[in-house]
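Q&A log
Question type: sequence-to-structure
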Amino acid sequence: MDKLRLDRLKQKAWSMIDSKEYEQALGLFNECVSADPDNLTHLVEKGVALYKMKRVEEAIATFDQVLARSPQQILAYNNKARALIDLGREQEAMLCYRTVLSFAPDHARTWFRTAQLMQRMQVFEKALACYDEAIRLDPKDAETWHGRGTLALECGDPIAAIADFEQAIELQHKYFEAMRDRVRALMDSGRLGDAKTAINELMRLKPKNTEVELIYGELLLALKDHQGALGSFESIIGREKDCAAAWDGKGRALRALGQEERGLLNCGTAAMIKQHYDEALRLFDSAIAANPNYAEAWSNKGVLLAKMKRHTDAVDAYQRSLAIAPAAVPVMNNLALLLYNDLGRKEEGLKWFRESIRYEPQRWFQLPSEIRTAIDALNTKGSAQKSR
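Response status: OK
Response body:
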């Protein structure tokens, strides 16, 4: 098979990887390997494809096939290291990088990857030395400057981090990650006005970006613009209801505005999303202590207790919520589901389903057919008892 045909096959295979047609893509990579077995690039690309398919162990085995035939194949070593890191096998990954540097000591990219791994392992002095060596070998690699900046920021030196991020941005115009982390470094160094100018530029570059909006909300909190921060966090929640950081930010903004129980409720919601259930329970209880008639706090506590498998306590929490806000249909529905599905108190659950339908008749059509049939039977039973 000629080179042009092989290139087209691989291009098609990568398109299939992008569209998640994994098995068909793998078939095309195998066809390339069979047609041109002496070209190890095809086998390396097959390994990368397996890695992207989350078949990490198979990817490592494929890279090992390459290395058995070509022990100085840098690309195979570096991709194998990346796969090993994903499996938490950092020491084995480090061995891959050290092997490359033993026969290719001027390979800047491997020094960079080694630095990243050292930083991940919190061996910070060695990580810095590796970043410096990578920069010495390739001073125009923006990603390496950015990496060294993240290390400085992690080590509590935002001034050094700002200089590195600015160097990265100078080398690569509109380098999003460097621009984003520069804002964080400016905030950490107390340069809040400069941070606001920088993040406005970032928001023009990537409007409606959740990561940027979260930083913007934190910046507004630091500037004591609590109402603005609240709006920023609420905008995120409107798009991504499970964004724990936005719920937590909203909670802190509300507390700063003097709305203590609402703030505690939102912080508790963030903890619940992160599955920090004990912390969430403490925050919901604090919200209830601040306002015992806070129906939403009782309801959220019910949701949390159900997640913790404390079903009887969850029923009590839902009932406390409904005693305060008797027309809260979502709470009725949650209570009905808990009674019917988890506690075996089916008739009691059906009565709450029926009550929720009384307030919102369209809910009838959203119920499973089994429950609609059971409610009809309950209604018929009730009518027969009344006629006696």
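Response note: The CA atoms of residues 78 and 265 lie 46 Å apart.
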